[in-house]
Fold this protein.
Amino acid sequence: MLNFELYNPVNYIFGKDQIAKLSELVPANSKVLMAFGGGSIFKNGIYEQVKNALKGFEIVEFGGIEPNPRFETLMKAVQIIRDQKIDFILAVGGGSVIDGVKFISAAVNFDGNEEDILRKRILFKDTNAVVPFGTVLTLPATGSEMNSGAVVTIEATQEKLTLGGSALFPKFSIVDPTVITSLPKRQLQNGVVDAFTHVMEQYLTYQHDALLQDRFAESILKTLIEVGPSVVENPSDYKLASNFVWCATMALNGLIQKGVPSDWATHMIGHELTALYEIDHARTLAIIGPNLYKVMFETKKDKLAQYGERVWNISRNTVDETAHQAIEKTIEFFHIMGMKTKISENAENIEKTADFIVNRFEERGWNGLGEKQNITLEKVREIVEMSY
């Protein structure tokens, strides 16, 4: 097992009717920026619940944070906080809103060009240098409510880049599974596949000695397979909703990645598809993931076979046969979850996609990705072209 440090200070408040606790969680006398997305919180009652819970607080509202939040939009919020001397941010939304708020938190007091936060992957470790924030989760998928990482798109250059650091954990996150009742089917499908692939990035690498970590990961995968198709059809079923939401948090709150290698190449390639074609994040993962497993089969086949046996209950034949069956089972599951697993099914004029992505990675110096840094630019090209 690899050495690791596990730090997660998020006060995670789970269950029904928990939004009412906001008045106890937001620091007294705070001036609050309430950040949200496209306005769904006005339709599902979340806005009213939040406002009622924060009566007596001075609140400035900032809406319009996009799916795949834009640097340009977030900088408007940064300026509002600077101008109005706001001292707490409340993210009310899904992963995109929460990711956006993490960037806002980091950028307000940043001394320099704010784009550098993304381009140079600056890690924020000093809690005194960021604006504290909490979250009210409305769309489970990304785990952003209990981690310190974020992804932001620079629209001007069509780049989707990351930021993070231990100072960017939410102070608290309220997670009420009943909020998923009003979500569109597509968003629920995306949420299940996003969480599933988050686990795969941290699990599907190579055999190692961290036995418990593998079992943690496999339990999340099996639970998502069990509840995923049903929760999409019956989001008001609290058993299904609560298990789905908790899986999404556990998939990326830091626990299952401790002591083990991780990959993340599927995400890095998938981010480029979103930046290029506005394909939903989860759908880019469903496109790229299985083809990455195929291209990198020789280095991943032992773990693929374990995954096939333990998660899909495939009877062990040879390692190769079991591993190939595991990939096919994964693709079948993605199809059941409504994913279209080719780029051409999600976008047009895709002929130069591989060239664009390989050139981007080369410009950034990303010459080797994955848990062994053996996903070369040639392999990236092969993965993307196989995904057409």
